[in-house]
Design goal:
The structure is a homodimer. Chain A is α/β, with parallel strands linked by helices and about 300 residues long. Chain A contains ten helices and 14 strands. In chain A, helix 5 runs parallel beside helix 7 (about 225-245). Chains A, B: Its EC number is 2.7.1.58.
């Protein structure tokens, strides 16, 4: 018995992780719980149990509203939550109910889709909504580094367009599933190698496959350090993304959403291009976004 | 008892596969054997047994010379065979003996290394030597598509320089270990999608991570066919390589070494740039290369 009695529960359910917060009506987190049971390792019928395993202590006081963003709303998720189209507000109306026991009222936030070029997001729309809730009237470009990095153009409270880059997933697949795995093992980070590779990745992105093999060759021939090898892989990939996203940051107001090392790398990469991107914590914007969805939900109910 | 009594045995031992041929003194294959026990799945002490398992029928007539090219000579292989430096002939002298029972005389061909930019090959040097043996005096550029594609400049019987691209390994890692795996499953090939992606990969290689995610988005939004998705992934990656290798094929005499679909894709890609690259079978050049190494060995012995 923890004594935590939330007004509602906020949930961010990604491919790899599940996080839940016990929330007050005003949007303050009272407690947090998490597990590694991401969408990627669950069958549809396992979602409710996985959630109950971490929020069970907060239940018992009547039917509990639960708002979920992220991959739990994908086709392979708990309940498919569809996509709202851009241009439009980041949080479309129309939460999707997910089947559960009668003591839970589970709703999933829809993703966003763009027709041309084809693109989708699921989870980031809630972060964008949260960023706008924390920064009312903000116009400019948001960059959300991650497994599938997003660049999002905002104007007048709406998402005008966005672009996804598989940069983080490429890093992970190359590091774990190519011959480079022998060169990357260990710890550490070589800032100079990152900066040089970033410049190289921007200048000659077509040479990626060759520069990657050169990392392996150099570690065989001259014992290149794993710290330099890792920084070089990251710099080559992020450099190509920064180059491709040039139209998104050049002369624009840019804000970064993220935490930790990856967001720092993007910040450094943008700073090398003369862009001073403010960094906003991703958990803060996720909670603000789910709180905005909750306000819409209760507002709808009240009318 | 097969009745096959070779003069010597030729072996191509890669990361994934092992192939052996019973050879006459003149370099004709009498029989072939193969297994899937590539270097990647063997401990050092397992190599001899893996080889005996497939060549056992050919032994019994005295001490048998065995010449091996490929990854069996890597640091994690049967015996590390070192690297000869370029510029220089593709087959350097100095075969590395591998420990074995007294009825075998096992020697491994060294790889080739380049200092600037750092690069290595192991196995392809034998194919290059074989190509030169079959085409004496040939000057130009060889392209060897594969897991780690190689572009090799030949002049006056020597390797002047070379460049490796991790293109094949990137394709495999992305197809198996990213979200694209959901979009690629199945059979078939879309030639038009390949050509379009090749052009796109050459023109905007920096957009790779974005174009990859668009494949996933398009299969979610418009049910893009797996045949088109696979062709697009291949075209984007090969397009970037062809663009980066521009200095290797533009205005040059180019020959391709390979068989099957992958070599066909490279041939089509080069043809789109106006380069008519002749295609030579990779097994033929491997055997010709090992025969050249065998001639050097017996020649050395004779002096």
């Amino acid at each position: 018995m923890t004594g935590v009695r939330p007004d509602w529960i906020a949930v961010d359910w990604g491919t790899s992780n599940l996080r839940a917060w016990a929330m007050t009506e005003a949007g303050e987190p009272l407690a947090e719980a998490r597990s590694d049971r991401g969408m990627g390792r669950l069958r549809r019928e396992d979602f409710e149990g996985a959630l109950r395993d971490i929020i069970g202590d907060w239940l018992g006081g009547g039917r509990m509203p639960v708002l979920i963003c992220g991959m739990a709303g994908a086709r392979q998720g708990w309940a498919e939550a569809g996509y709202a189209r851009v241009p439009g507000p980041p949080l479309a109306k129309g939460l999707t109910p997910a089947p559960s026991g009668p003591d839970l009222d589970v709703r999933i936030v829809p993703g966003l889709a763009q027709d041309d070029p084809p693109d989708v997001m699921r989870g980031e729309e809630t972060q964008v909504a949260g960023f706008l809730a924390l920064n009312p009237g903000w116009d400019g470009v948001l960059c959300l580094p991650g497994t599938h990095s997003k660049w999002v153009r905002l104007s007048a409270g709406e998402v005008v367009g966005f672009r996804s880059f598989m940069t983080g997933e490429l890093y992970a697949a190359i590091a774990a599933h190519t011959v480079l795995r022998h060169s990357l093992a260990g710890e550490g980070w070589d800032e100079g190698a990152f900066a040089a590779a970033l410049t190289e990745g921007m200048a000659r992105p077509e040479a990626l496959a060759s520069r990657l093999f050169a990392i392996r060759a150099e570690s065989l021939l001259t014992a290149l350090s794993p710290a330099a090898a890792r920084a070089r892989l990251s710099g080559l990939l992020i450099g190509a993304e920064i180059q491709a996203a040039r139209g998104w940051w050049l002369g624009e107001r840019v804000a970064l959403i993220g935490t930790g090392r990856l967001a720092g790398h993007y910040r450094a990469a943008l700073a090398m291009q003369g862009v001073d991107a403010a960094l906003t914590d991703d958990t803060a914007v996720t909670l603000a976004g789910l709180q905005a969805a909750r306000r819409e939900q209760t507002g709808e109910r009240g009318t």
